[in-house]
Amino acid sequence: MLKERIEEVTQANQQFYEAFESLDVGRMDQIWVQQEYVTCIHPGWGLRVGWPAVRDSWVLIFNNTFSMKFELTEIQIQVAGDMAWVICTENITSQQGETVQESRVLATNLYERVGDRWKIIHHHGSPVME
Length: 130
Prior knowledge:
The protein starts with a helix and ends with a strand. With 130 residues, it is of the alpha+beta class. A 6-stranded mixed β-sheet has the order 2-1-6-5-4-3. Helix 1 (2-22) runs antiparallel to helix 2 (25-31). It has helices at residues 2-22, 25-31, 51-63, and strands at 39-41, 48-49, 67-80, 83-96, 99-114, 117-127.
């Protein structure tokens, strides 16, 4: 059963990054728990609390980014009951206007099992300094 749950969380995490790469807030809407207790910390940003504030942060990022691709490394997944967390390194290639940037971010994604689906309730990214 634990192996099955880890696979489910792996898929949920993949869906999160696919939504991120799509730059489509509608896809983000589908994978987040839309409650006041959700939180998000983007690299260099302050804490966003509650679904409206978290959603607004995705709108800002998506409206100001031309493209974004992720390669995840150092992935660790833990499941405890109806909670799960993923820790990974995001190797990001992004484009804003004509500028292409490469960066590494250490991320923690927290998931809650809602019915038969794992949905994200927290994302925290911190830049990795070389």
